[in-house]
Amino acid sequence: MTSPPTGVHWLSMVELGDAYRRRMLSPVEVTRALLGRIEALNPDLNAFLTVTGDLALAEARRAEEELRRGIDRGPLHGVPYALKDLIATAGIRTTCGSSLRADWVPDEGAVVAQRLRDAGAVLLGKTHLHEFAYGATNANPHYGPARNPWNRERATGGSSGGSAGAVAAGLAPLALGTDTGGSVRIPSALCGIVGLKTTFGRVSTRGVFPLSWSQDTVGPMTRSAEDAALALQALAGPDPRDPHAARVPVPDYRAALGSPIAGLRFGVWEEAMAFADPIVREAVEVALETFRMQGAEIISLSWSRLDLLGAAASILLYVDASVVHAADLRRAPQRYGEDVRGRLELGTLIPATAYVKAQRLRRLLLDEYRRLFERVDAIISPTCSLPAPGVDRPFVTLRRVKIDVRPALSALTRPYNAIGAPAISVPCGFSPDGLPLGLQVAGPPWSEPLLLRAAAAYQQATRWHTRRPLLAASA
Predict the structure, then answer these.
(1) Per-residue pLDDT tens for 52-77?
(2) Does the pTM of the predicted model rise above 0.85?
(3) Is 84 known to be catalytic?
(4) Does 188 participate in catalysis according to the annotation?
(5) Of 26, 160, 163, 183, which one is the catalytic site residue?
(6) CA–CA distance, 301 with 98 (Å, rounded to integer)
(7) Residue from 26, 84, 98, 188 carrying the catalytic annotation
């Protein structure tokens, strides 16, 4: 084809792979189309901090030539993607959304970046984030905010806000994010895409700038559960140089997607439902009916540990992050944004006894969490308690109470980081003013196949994930 084909920016990874192998599209054509779209839309959306155009075209040409010669690296071969900009890339700047590392060019890339490269995927660039991934809004004093494609005056959520905005706006079919307190799931919910927080240790974090060693995870952000399964297949697995990467078998994630969900037991986390804004709660209640119509059993589930889990997760995060940044915080505190610096300084004041108690509490609550699955197969709740707040808005009103935007967004996601369990966010509706809403499905450790299966079944029965923001669709 002599010009970029129309509409390729909304094709899924599965659809791109099929089109490549049927010689209907080529990786070079698709990459050029997406680079053109990034050029047109990124000045407004601020989803990318670095665009690797020349590298992307070179990788696309290599993929095209390999496929032509019958060398097939798998479902991601020739598929464009983006990386959150604290995932190290060899020879490409990795800012971490900070001024301190604005010019950092790593010598070695992260394991996840190499695994995608080995799978033949095509790197489009590095996406925006909250400074050092330490926030839930993606308000960034150094690079400005990432803006939500559904409404530019609304936040993408964070910290993987650029990744979510890029996928939602049709700038990339796949982006990687990191999730330490909800940073994959929050922006996925607010931008209307699928975001998977993986089991702690499922995907290597070597080469990812740390926020909390005991809670950091890497996960895919896509527009469909099927695409998320394909991405996780390439990412998952042990890493002998990463002490946190578990040596457990990697299942066939895509194989589980076609199985019906009839007979599965979904527990509705009532405390989480009560915390959410009525608009969000009503959307999740409608989604529950969709699961019920597919033969799933819906069970009311009380688990009154939201505050305890939140406290444990926060203590671990504050202390881990303050240790990571101790030297830079002493040397150049003025180089940090005010909100991140404040949380780092707070972390230095938490005593070691509190950290040890938080670790013990985490262990006890994980045991208690596992026992919940004697009654249910998965747990359902809203992903976030409210739709996307305004850009740079520090407070929101939730159930007629003014609260800090960070706990408002992360209260229902961070418990799963504290216990290391997987959870997925799926689009489940829109607010009256057209903002996406997210449904969260969580399970015991290593239950990603079940979560992907449930998410895929929901998407097969609904159309929320097929709606596109007008801003992006007009380009």
Answers:
(1) 999 999 999 999 999 999 999 999 99
(2) yes
(3) yes
(4) no
(5) 183
(6) 41
(7) 84
